[in-house]
Design a protein that fits this description.
The chain is 25% helix and 33% strand. The protein has 138 residues and is an alpha/beta fold. It has a 4-stranded mixed beta sheet with strand order 1-4-3-2, covered by helices on one side.
Amino acid sequence: MQPAAFGATVVTARTSEVAAFYAQYFDLEIVLDLGWFITLRRGEADWELAICERGHATVPAAVSALTDSTNVFGFIVDDVDKVAAAVAEGGVPLETSVVTEVFGQRHFFVRDPEGTWIDVIQLVAPDPDWLESQQNLA
């Protein structure tokens, strides 16, 4: 089976606030807003992010009972430093500083208003020495 599309859902008591966070910092557009359920998408992407109200009848009680998120959403962006600056200027604390990894990512972590972890990633060239060491493992 191959899924036709992919979506992730943040369950929260603050649907509008969480949706606004993704719209502001990740240029996602709200495509449906029922108050208790909001979907966001970028352009014609075949994925979407949903924000659903905690305690709504469509959310299993066991899910609504959870308040700590262990999910990590990864967003690949063109300029990670620009996003980090915008997030910080907006008063959202960065959970890590921006770092460049030897394997080809420059990234930082932040959390949305519900506490969902977000890895904001810019793809960069891997360190040549690291890349060579990995090719020797094959």
